[in-house]
Amino acid sequence: MLLQMEHITKRYGEVTANRDVNFDLRAGEVHALVGENGAGKTTLMRMLYGMEQPTSGTIRVRGQEVSFTDPSRAIASGIGMVHQHFMLFPSFTVAENIVIGREPSSAGGRFNRKAAAASVEELGRRYGMPVDPSARVSDCPMGMQQRVEILKVLYQGADMIILDEPTGALTPLEVKELLTNIQALAGQGKSFILITHKLHEVMEAADRVTVLRDGQVTGTVAVADTDVEQLSRMMVGRELVQLRKQPSIPGEPILQVEKLVVRGTRDKLLLNRIDLQVRAGEIVGVAGISGNGQSELIQAVAGLRKADEGTVRLAGTDIAGMPVRRIRERGLAHIPEDRYLWGAAKDATVLDNGIMGYQHKLKRGGMVNSKSARVMVSEWITRFGIKAGSLDNQVQNLSGGNLQKLIAAREFAQDAPFLIVAEPTRGVDIGAMETIHTELIRKRDAGTAILLVSSELTEILQLSDRIVVMYEGAIAGELAAADATEEKISLLMAGGSLQA
């Protein structure tokens, strides 16, 4: 056995994150680690990687007991970790990011860029993951950045690689490529621990899967001997409710976007004369490969970016150029695509983030009514199953999925006539996904107009009444839900046409 973690317990004061956990890894194996948000998956792996130390328990690598007090010791033992949020320097080249900390030097002690590029090129060729060593990381798509992260840990000599939610920001094609690369590397003797919420990826890529619930192992099974339904029950402790969606009965237009143009640096067209309408009581899904204008569309509608041309009407009022607060007061709620950049203030408390953007509604005599705010946010925490501890904890201590649930609960509670929902289930567990999807359908049925932007085609297909596909800043096509398939959407995403 390559790795054994035995009876691992981790406590933070009165909170137990992991309790008596046993986990092992074999050479050349892909072992998935799944569980709901806050189940203890990342904490367990942070202990393996030396970022945390167990309260009790034993870790053995190749039969030898080890104690990693920092990541450098784990790396020296052949363990690498690719974090959920990439740890790359955008302004550096691919080669510079991969060799950082172990840079080849010339005779004079200077960084040898030529040798670094050659080493990286050979590394990519050896593992079947070619890269351009001279490319700047900021210019690389997310799938390529993921490849750079993996090559970085391989360059460090890792034969055990921890991947924490590796597909969260990837397109469907990039996901397939990553899973293929993982299996190919496992065939060459590398071992992977795959932390993920996406059970279809577990079924496709893993050999075994261990399920955590409330910090404890509920079982370890061979993928060949299980299915998604069984794993779901092991994760949440109950049967999941199947989403039931009746055909929509759309009402009057709530959002009307006409000839919308947004330009970037050097006058590059980011949005090219977009026409879009979302009516009351319908969900319009927006699909597209990342970087094709979806983010700019959201930002222009929500007031986070100034449009260069065109109009944006919300319930008949032109909101283009209005401050964000006034747009929200006109009836817009927004679950943003980047929860850390747009959705939360990490140093603020759970309570403050819960009322953020709407605190003026809770003011009495110029001060926020703290008692009412605490009752309201506490109700959301219970309803959405958010593991937050105290309302006075900083949100940076929440898992990414629990923070996502807090933001979703906050925006759902506003009862706005128009709701922008961007990547609503990124990084959340299957139980939270069920809750968020059910709430979106409930909102739609109550008459809310919803603009849904998601990189998950299954989510787009499951929830949308109409689907528009974006390509190079323009709308490449529109499909009714009844006519939409993953193949048709993928064709439009790649710049193709549905016309014969």
TrEMBL record:
Q: Which Gene3D superfamilies match?
A: P-loop containing nucleotide triphosphate hydrolases (3.40.50.300)
What the entry lists under PROSITE patterns is as follows: ABC_TRANSPORTER_2
Lineage: superkingdom: Bacteria
Q: Name one GO molecular function term.
A: ATP binding
Sorted alphabetically, which keywords does the UniProt record give? ATP-binding, Nucleotide-binding
Secretion signal, residue range per the UniProt entry: none
Question: What's a Pfam family this protein contains?
Answer: ABC_tran
Q: What is this protein called?
A: ABC transporter ATP-binding protein
